[in-house]
Amino acid sequence: MLTEREKLDTLLRLSVELGYSKDLDILMEHILTEARRFVNADAGSIYLKDHETLIFSYTQNDTLQRRLPPNEKLAYANFTVPIDQNSIAGFVAKTGTILNIPDALRLPATVPYHFNRSFDEKVGYSTRSILTIPLNTAQGDVIGVLQIINAQDENGNVIAFLPEDELMFIHFANTAAMALERAKLTRDLILRTIKMAEMRDPQETGAHVNRVASYTIEIYERWARKKGSDEKEIKEKRDVLRMAAMLHDVGKVAISDVILKKPAKLMDEEYNIMKQHTILGARLFLDGHSDFDRAAIDVSLNHHERWDGKGYPGHVNVQTGSPIADYAGPDGQARGKTCDEIPLFGRIVAIADVYDALTSVRAYKEAWDEKRVLETLAENAAKQFDPELIEIFFSCLDFIHNIKQRYPEKPHL
Ligand code: C2E
Ligand code: SIN
Ligand code: SIN
Ligand code: SIN
Ligand code: FE
Ligand code: FE
395: domain CATH number? Predict the structure, then answer.
């Protein structure tokens, strides 16, 4: 358990750190981990407001996690709760006030809300103490609810949340709400952009981009730990990389429907046009100077380069699309980038994208079975793909499969 002094320090540090995360999923993970750490809580959830309902958006539960095999992630459904006085989370969102419940099984008869035991019964968990905090923005709008469950003493026994901790949680929730609001705006912008691409190309769905992005950061994290990067750097990079990876094919919005939706193999001429999506995508971020803009350029431009130099678009000037003088081959075409000439983020997304393309249905191809996909990836180590990254990919297949289940193909976002 943290001392008062440590709590204050953590609070100050977090208000700075939460400002860095711009990706919604990563931010929710961060917020919940830190909130639970304050009081050694076993579990917790975040609900985000969408019109008149709360969407159960993220959860952690150490007890349930321990029952899973080592590499599994907790599965949960995104159910909704109406914003009214009937549920605990709904009550807090409705009233905008913190609610400290020492024991969910002994609610006073006078309160309007009920504790819904069905979740606990379904998964075999026992919720007792619950602290539910509204996520209020500076403008006074509730954008969601942070719920922390089962505070524990040093011996792991469930205890009530201390009333004197409530103020600290309110401060924390205010900081978290600001960061969440910003991340939600960014996510909405990215999803709107992808929606635009999706209207054009039914294969580029929210599920596809989420899978590619999640595979990508799974590989990146392992690569970075292996290279001894510090955790702070990993957190920051993984955040921008996730968003950049979601946008890897954003340049396809500029490709004509005839080519994009062709239900057959492309002619050479068509394929050459299609290849432009790398440069067209990168161009969208040229004016920006943030880490995110740089990552988005790296990914968009380089996700079809090959380790052996036979990929595209090669050494080109993004602005003009023409070969960079010293890198034109004998035919006047840009020479493909090879090995480390390809930025890391491009090398990682290349693997994530091809794995997802091969395991999915496309207008022009059937989904391949997993075995054939893995053989193809393995055969192409050091040809199409960075061999070290392929090795890392194979070392975390359990995680990859888990991600695949988390983002199944569905007709809409
Ligand atoms: P995509 O469908 O997202 O595919 C991404 C990458 O996955 C492809 O990059 C390629 O490296 C790999 N891939 C996909 N399908 C196959 C396959 O059947 N065999 C092998 N060995 N690899 C595969 P690539 O080839 O540069 O294509 C980029 C994009 O161009 C594709 O994105 C897709 O939108 C389009 N495209 C490529 N080939 C065709 C085609 O024959 N017909 C149509 N309609 N579109 C195509
Ligand atoms: C509720 O807030 O009433 C339901 C969520 C929970 O079971 O903790
Ligand atoms: C093409 O369709 O021209 C290239 C696609 C591939 O074979 O990977
Ligand atoms: C990057 O973060 O993209 C640079 C690392 C590398 O290319 O090896
Ligand atoms: Fe692409
Ligand atoms: Fe793609």
Answer: 1.10.3210.10
